[in-house]
């Protein structure tokens, strides 16, 4: 039994396809299949049912996979402890970030982070909050950047910024004439929302008074992009709510409306599993992000945190 065989086993369980698992492990499909088969022969167990209904772990295989994940986690933690003792910021950083934050925050810090630590390989994925949380627990991500609090005791949160919600209003909408917004002003008429699954959508609906579905229109549009919502507002008589980083170049526009104090904000944190030991890397990442943020967005503002759960 080798660590490589355990890695192949876990990849096969994660992807449930030999071809895809092999691609993720950067080996050929026959190589991965042969190594998994050798492991089965050594253990004297069938680990996966290979049927026309799809690849599934057997009852015994599920137990072996669970233990294999634990072994690989401990091996990775051992490597990280060694790197920590040597003072090295090297290896791989697997970072998950929510789509409503990624286009506005990643370009601010990614190049600087790699420039400071050229031996660090950074892999960034845009994922929704639930996916990031699960993958942090599965140890297939190292760090998440997402909206908190999460109310999950297995995860540690390090707040980084508090980002205000702003109105983005077309000239033809009644809210356009207001100097500042209040939650009571928000209703379903003309409101454009992100599609289901985005935490920002839930926060917007939690902020509305009362929460309401989108107004009846002769058409619907399920968008996963804040930029698309902004363009819809520009071309219609509707409005939407946006995070402040998405309108940094438009803050003087009459379309952008602030809320009356206390401003509603979303708390954004770096999130790791409690077993994460590369704390200097985490602090470096936080410092790089903070250095690139407008000061008014940093944690500690007197805002009203809007929950997404």
Automatic annotation (TrEMBL):
Keywords: Activator, DNA-binding, Transcription, Transcription regulation. GO terms for cellular component: protein-DNA complex. Coiled coil: none annotated. Residues 1-58 form the HTH lysR-type domain. CDD domains: PBP2_OxyR. One of its GO terms (molecular function) is DNA-binding transcription factor activity. It comes from the Bacteria. It holds the Pfam family HTH_1. InterPro entries: LysR_HTH_N, LysR_subst-bd, WH-like_DNA-bd_sf, WH_DNA-bd_sf. Belongs to the LysR transcriptional regulatory family. PANTHER family: HYDROGEN PEROXIDE-INDUCIBLE GENES ACTIVATOR, TRANSCRIPTIONAL DUAL REGULATOR HCAR-RELATED. This is Hydrogen peroxide-inducible genes activator.
